[in-house]
Design goal:
- One of its GO terms (molecular function) is peroxidase activity.
- InterPro entries: AhpD-like, Uncharacterised_peroxidase-rel.
- This is Peroxidase-related enzyme.
- It comes from Brachybacterium kimchii.
- It is a single chain.
- The protein is mainly alpha-helical and 211 residues long.
- It folds into 2 domains: 82 residues, no CATH class; 110 residues, AhpD-like (Up-down Bundle), CATH 1.20.1290.10.
- It is 57% helix and 0% strand.
- Helix 4 packs across helix 6 and helix 5 packs antiparallel against helix 6.
- It is globular, with a radius of gyration of 18 Å.
Length: 211
């Protein structure tokens, strides 16, 4: 994704075109060059324009991944849809799962991103930050949140360790089959986003550090 005149001035600036020289193959926000916005498929360009309009800036993860064209569009649709307003789980639950998963996967960019979004959802940035650092050190998490966090961490780090008892534990906390499968989709989708962002070494957005 290229930066254009519509990009918020506080967002990180990156070169518009892929360079021919190996020394120039890293953009300012990613290990790979950024695609030019005018060269993107129409649906992806419209998707990113909408995201930029909603947030007031284009997130670096979206700019960096846009080089994949339609593949980026499909992944974005999945990720953004899972954090939308409608679902079997509450938006707060989905933000929580995305935060714990990002922390488990060691993705600094996504961890910072979801600390912000979960902090807004619960109106407590300090608690969101503590969960993003290590939810296991947050003693005040209730049993439902603990079960969701353990599920997210297991699926992220050692999915073969997930067993019937883990599913039963979620059911014991009142989660339906539809909620459990949605929780699984959130975790596996954000694992993909985490790995993409880590592999590209995407620079965190300046907005993450606003007071």
């Amino acid at each position: 994704m290229t930066t254009t005149a519509t990009q918020a001035p506080t967002a990180t600036t990156a070169r518009d075109t892929a360079a021919s020289s190996p020394a120039e193959q890293r953009s300012e926000i990613s290990r790979l060059p950024l695609a030019r916005r005018e060269d993107l498929p129409t649906a992806l360009r419209e998707q990113l324009d909408g995201l930029e309009s909603q947030l007031g800036y284009l997130p670096n993860w979206a700019a960096a991944s846009a080089l994949a064209g339609e593949h980026a569009q499909h992944l974005n649709t999945l990720l953004l849809g899972l954090l939308g307003r409608k679902g079997a789980l509450s938006q707060e639950d989905r933000d929580f799962l995305a935060l714990v998963s990002s922390a488990a996967n060691g993705c600094s960019y996504c961890r910072l991103n979801h600390i912000q979004s979960y902090g807004r959802a619960i109106h407590d940035h300090a608690l969101a930050t503590r969960i993003g650092l290590d939810d296991r050190e947050v003693a005040e998490l209730d049993e439902r949140r603990r079960a969701l966090a353990d599920f997210a961490r297991t699926v992220s780090l050692d999915v073969h360790a997930l067993g019937d008892a883990d599913i039963a534990g979620l059911r014991a906390q009142g989660l339906s089959s539809e909620q459990i499968i949605e929780a699984l989709f959130v975790v596996i989708a954000f694992a993909a986003g985490n790995r993409l962002t880590v592999a590209l070494n995407v620079l965190p957005d300046a907005q993450f550090f606003d007071a």
